[in-house]
Design a protein that fits this description.
13 strands, 413 residues, 49% helix, 13 helices
């Protein structure tokens, strides 16, 4: 994400046109140079665009060099300042250093001295900036360690959204994700919004244009799209949103949307965000591996549908969901009549084959949101989500009829 470093900007302040042009010619190979004839013009130039370094004469009409230094430190902190002074004003140069100036030059200024001071100052700035960058990236790397404890994809998205906001020093963001391991489980999380705003956004995002998860494949700034429209609907004006895509190894995927909050995203912030997305994608892959292993422990070896252990977990989850939302839930228990005779007459291999075929038939009779499990032996259970007693009875009868009409293979003999 990092781009070649921008050229430094130096502002030369001197009431002498000769000295201004001299500095411009000497420094044009080192930096972009802007020349100002007095302190007021220099302050206006800084308001328009920040500078890395100010070279200022001590004595000028209006504000003096020392007064300009004081203003710059107050209004544009972090800007380096070099004072140019005559030999007779050496005490002023010492005072400037005491006030926080980086260095001083004594008139008449030689070209090699000017280049040396500017190079030294800009090198120091680059070194400090690099130290800050490494420190901040190290802090984000350390913070990303909290992702290693997340084995649920939902937890990964939640923790990673907080880390992404920390990385770019913002407070408002949205995480949209697709939980491929759980059917119909597109989710969203919010930071920095009121409860009313969150509720409104959920409705707008759910009812709006479906997000194409493959459309955003790298970190980018976007100035339009469904999320922009949803935010404007609730009265939040946004410019460029920062989109941070994350993906697991299989089908877990999501996008973090970070609001600019009135200021542009800096290159260093984007670099730190990349660190977070990299660790998030790794954590999603770990969560997927964990769920695959967990799923293998919850799948029946014979029928390859869920076993009783998973059924109990799913039943507890669906009962709590039905109680919370006031929805209906039906449970079907299926028992095969005279299945023991199949094993006795044809053998257990044929019996197992019949159970596998039955599981396939039952799987075609239920929806993706329902849960089909082998409870044990020749007993099966189906959880029908959002289904009342009458509809559940009708489904049970339909399943009974389909099973009765299905021929079961007994093997080649």
């Amino acid at each position: 994400m990092s781009e070649p470093s921008r050229r430094a900007r130096v502002v030369v302040v001197d009431d002498s046109r000769f000295h201004r042009e001299f500095a411009r010619q000497v420094l044009q190979g080192e930096a972009d140079v802007d020349c100002c004839q007095d302190a007021e013009e220099a302050l206006q130039a800084l308001d328009r665009e920040p500078a890395d370094l100010i070279l200022s004469d001590l004595t000028m009409p209006g504000l003096s060099g020392l007064e300009l230094l004081e203003r710059v430190q107050h209004e544009h902190p972090g800007t380096d300042f070099v004072l140019i002074t005559a030999y007779a004003s050496i005490d002023s140069a010492v005072e400037a250093l005491r006030m926080g100036a980086t260095d001083y030059l004594q008139k008449p200024v030689r070209a090699e001295d000017l280049i040396l001071v500017v190079e030294r100052t800009l090198s120091r700035r680059r070194l400090l900036r690099e130290n800050v960058r490494l420190r901040d990236e190290g802090a984000i790397l350390e913070a990303c360690g909290s992702l290693t404890a997340c084995l649920e994809p939902g937890d990964v998205y939640s923790v990673a959204l907080d880390l992404a906001l920390q990385a770019v020093r913002r407070e408002r963001g949205i995480a949209l994700y697709h939980r491929a391991l759980i059917p119909n489980s597109e989710g969203c999380q919010f930071r920095g919004f009121s409860e009313d705003q969150e509720s409104a956004l959920r409705l707008l995002i759910a009812g709006g244009k479906r997000l194409d998860w493959g459309e955003i494949d790298d970190v980018r700034l976007l100035d339009r799209g469904p999320i922009h429209n949803a935010l404007r609907e609730i009265g939040v004006e946004v410019g460029d949103l920062l989109a941070l895509p994350v993906r697991g190894e299989e089908a877990e995927s999501g996008v973090f949307w970070i609001l600019p909050e009135g200021r542009a995203f800096e290159e260093e912030e984007l670099d730190r965000a990349l660190i977070v997305t990299g660790h998030t994608s790794l954590s999603l892959r770990n969560a997927e591996h964990y769920h695959r292993a967990k799923e293998r422990a919850l799948v029946d070896d014979v029928t390859e549908i869920y076993n009783a252990r998973y059924l109990l977990e799913a039943m507890d989850r669906e009962i709590r969901r039905a109680e919370r939302y006031g929805s209906e839930l039906s449970v079907l228990f299926l028992d095969l009549d005279r299945f023991k005779l199949v094993n006795d007459h044809h053998g257990h291999l044929v019996g197992s084959q019949a159970l596998r075929q039955l599981s396939q038939v039952l799987g075609q009779c239920v929806r993706q949101v329902d849960t089909l499990a082998r409870y044990g032996g020749d007993e099966f259970t189906i959880l029908l989500v959002g289904t009342g007693e009458q509809t559940g009875t009708e489904i049970a009868e339909r399943i009974r009829r389909i099973v009765a009409e299905t021929p079961f293979e007994a093997g080649p003999d």
